[in-house]
Amino acid sequence: MCALTAVFFIYKNKILPNPNAAYEELYSTFKQAEGTVVSFDRVGRRNSSEYTIQFRDQNDSLITVKEGNWQTMPVKVGDKVTMYYNPENPQQATTESRWKEIMRK
Predict the structure, then answer these.
(1) How far apart are CA 71 and CA 101, in angstroms?
(2) Is the pTM of this model over 0.70?
(3) Which residues fall within 8 angstroms of residue 10, CB to CB, at 6 or more apart?
(4) CA 18/CA 92 separation, integer angstroms
(5) 40-85 pLDDT tens trace
(6) What is the residue-wise DSSP string for 48-86?
(7) First CA to last CA across the chain, in angstroms?
(8) Rounded distance between C-alpha atoms, residue 20 and residue 44, angstroms
(9) pLDDT averaged over the chain?
């Protein structure tokens, strides 16, 4: 049983398909930027949170994105957050916590 567990641990990515593989390839090209939370809204019946975050891309263009309920501890308007964005399409952005979930090995 121990040997089987060790083999599975070592070769798990070859045995089980990686559900994040497509995202890993895309996210590996993302650039990091510091964003600022500019607004916060409650949406839907379950009081989900939606944050509006602004950051500057590599061309110094101001990008505004909306992010859903993405942190266990809510942030406040004015807080700084780390964002990762697609340099070819900066509207395609994600928070650092989501980026790290996909990119962890």
Answers:
(1) 13
(2) yes
(3) none
(4) 22
(5) 887 766 667 788 999 999 999 999 999 876 555 578 899 999 999 9
(6) EEEEEEEEE-TT--EEEEEE-S--SS---TT-EEEEEEE
(7) 24
(8) 28
(9) 80
